[in-house]
Amino acid sequence: MLTLTRRIAARPARQPAASPVRLARLRLQEPRMVQRHEQTCEARQIIRDWHATAASLPEAGHDDALHDARVAWARARQSRTRVDPVLLARPPGVSDTTLATPWRTVVVPRSALRWLVESDHTHERGHGSLWRIGGLRAAANSNPVDVDGKAMQDELQSRRPGHGCFAGVVCGPYGDRYSKYLFVIDHLGMHIVREMTPCDLSSRGIALHSLMREQAVVGGEIFFDRLDEGKVCINFGSARFPVRSNYQAEKVAEFVLALGYQSVVAMIPEREFCSGEYGLADRYGKEVQNMLFRAGDDA
User: Fold this and answer.
1) What is the pTM of this model?
2) Assign residue 134 a region: left if phi > 0, alpha if psi is -120 to 50, beta otherwise?
């Protein structure tokens, strides 16, 4: 089997195969997606061809773990999510998820928020506890082919405490998939991307936490309220960078407040949980338990 480098060298040059119909559909989405598609279409086609070839080879006699990972990636691509640009551009619908009355309200002193604003972890990748949340860790529970921190760098928005709220986001009800954003937090701050952003380098066909960052403190999902621009809802649904405790989840909510939001509804259950115990029922369904965080004056 030819290596990817030899395959690229042997392949004759050609223009990106982007049809007018395909580009017209993409222009219903964000302009950056169109530009990224036009600039990297050829490279992605080579990668897709390589994976298709690898998937057709027999597994017997291949001990290379990376080869097996590529085969699994190519097979997963066969059932990937295909994003309908019409649905992506439509106004958010109604969510089936309902939230219970917050079982606890936390008033975060402004002095604690100022501490986050004044913190600078830019050069502290190895710091023990970033933003009072935790340390960096590698993406877990993921095919290594789906781990690429540069795959979605053109689609990411990034903010750190004190630098203001996210701009130009799609607002919608909590639980609506087309207005859902993924987030990760690392030493540089919080990074978000709309989950339904098409991605040819993803086995699922859409954004993944491990394609946003290869290392992070924690990951989850965030929704921006359509009626109150100062309010967001977050959960901790990330298998790649799972939340480890209620305490860590609460510190993430405080971090989001420090970005400049007035209130944060965090899907934190009343029970105590350890790493790996935060499941789908903790973030979606009927009467989901949550906590409300808001900024308040120092005592």
Assistant:
1) 0.79
2) left
